[in-house]
Amino acid sequence: MGDSSFSKPANSSFPGHGLENLVKLFAERAPRYDRSGNISTENLHDLYDAGFLVLALPKSAGGQEISLRTMIQIISQVAQGDPSTALILAMQYLQSGSFAHSSLWSDAVKQEFFESVRQEGALINALRVEPELGTPSRGGLPATTVTQQGNTWRLNGRKIFSTGSTALQWGLVWARTDETDPRVGSVLVPLDLRGVRIEKSWHQLGMRATGSHTIIFENVEIPERYLGLLATPADSENNPIAIASWHAIVVAALYDGIAQAARDWLVTFLHQRVPTNLGAPLATLPRFQILVGEIDALLFSNAALIEQTVRLLEEGTEIDTKAGLAKQVITENAITAVGKAVAAIGNPGLSQDNPLERHYRNVLCGRVHTPQGDSAFLAAGQKTLQV
Description:
Butyryl-Coa Dehydrogenase, subunit A, domain 1, Butyryl-CoA Dehydrogenase, subunit A, domain 3, Butyryl-CoA Dehydrogenase, subunit A, domain 2
């Protein structure tokens, strides 16, 4: 998934310099999309125009093969403006980067995908979670099946919590063959194929503008070149655990970004709020000074933990369990930080007229991403105890 160097890509066309203005624009739009529950296609178009959607692609394909550090930097910043957009972008980076370096797909298929991203801003995500199975990280076989009928392969099934659904052009669908000894793995699906439809099922408390609806596949005819699960011999790249550590820390950085935005809003609020009985800003009160210090301590801990995790990954260390622990601690710190802000200022913190209320709903969603808390602790404990 690209090199792990700290510096930005040498190519001077790297668009990071324009990110600050985009983040401000995304923050202005965020309340509207949160209320509507729609994906901000405006944000995605802006990211495409600014060159952000291609960054994880190989340089030979017009990308930058951005490092994990750069990916985290971008996602954290975008999350401070609109975390729903940031999550769609994070999945674009993780899945397009992984796809580019997988041996499951032919060069021709890769070039087809690369061209769609360059020319159209095509988005991709892995579609794995199912109604009956739940998250596949807890084990089990998918109910989504690929069946051969003569020379034709057909895909049937449904995937829930499909982040970016209505904006996606490609899906990496986790499925199995209907053979006695089923093969399990990825199917690359152009989501404009006949038989693909979206059921609007995403009605969540937070991260409402991710459009994480249900995608349904009904007798979708799949060209054989897209059937990665047929690749032989079985390849570790057929299992998304290969990018688990990157996924965990990128998602953690996203939710830390939400907490940073909440902290910045709180600081402004405390300076601007001047109760008549006090005659001075709330920022002058020791109570609130202590509060901000507590929040800064949590975010400082997050920064150190993100840095340590990235450094271990740069060194090539296998740290799936540690990355899971980092994701757990960082997201809980972020939730605690925003919760402290809400509790301290009372009704203004829960008013939809202020962004803090939205930040609090959004940051709570950090708990549902893989690995979830119990899984992260269990894996770490088993590894330490060697059981």
